[in-house]
Amino acid sequence: MSEPFHLDPAKSALLVLDYQNVLLENYVAQAQREAVLAGTARMIAAARAARMPIVYVMVAFRTGHPEVSPRNALFSFVKQNGLFLRGQPETAIHPAVAPLHDEPVVIKQRIGAFSGTDLQTLLGSNGVETLVLAGITTGGVVLSTVRQAFDLDYRLVVARDCCADPDSELHDLLLDKVIAPHAQVVHSQHVVDALSA
């Protein structure tokens, strides 16, 4: 990177987006999965050590999926197949990056982390100005959340190696061409180093 990378833990938060068993198993190749989980686990450890807030975001539905509109093709498929039900092992956050008891978990029923959730309230109440994002998938929750957060005037950092998409070309295109104008796209080690400084 051409200029020094800084993070103020008191004004930043790490968002761990959709790191759920079912998504990791179905959308991230086995070899890549281990590296993605390891990088995110290192960022989580660094954030905890620096006392930077961590917010987990996951998609989950009530029994019967009453939150799903028949006009929503993606989530209608989820409803028809009984996916992402609350309390199910496949819906849970992967144990390698699981939250501690006092770390908030935001439950959503749409793609973006802000849509219909209390995420903005959590961030605003804690004076957060900078968001560091790690998420599955790049073309889903990461892209949608970056766009929403950019419109809310957050400084955005995306940890490239802690995002994944089943389409590797799309992953690179989104990070290099679509997300880069709105966020600093960095390696997770830059985040760890900045929090350790």
Automatic annotation (TrEMBL):
Record-annotated Isochorismatase-like domain positions: 12-187
Q: Which domain of life is it from?
A: Bacteria
Pfam families associated with the record:
Isochorismatase
Database matches in SUPFAM superfamilies: Isochorismatase-like hydrolases (SSF52499)
- Asked whether the UniProt record includes Hydrolase among its keywords, one would answer yes
Which of UniProt's keywords are assigned here? Answer: Hydrolase
What is this protein's record name? Answer: Nicotinamidase-related amidase
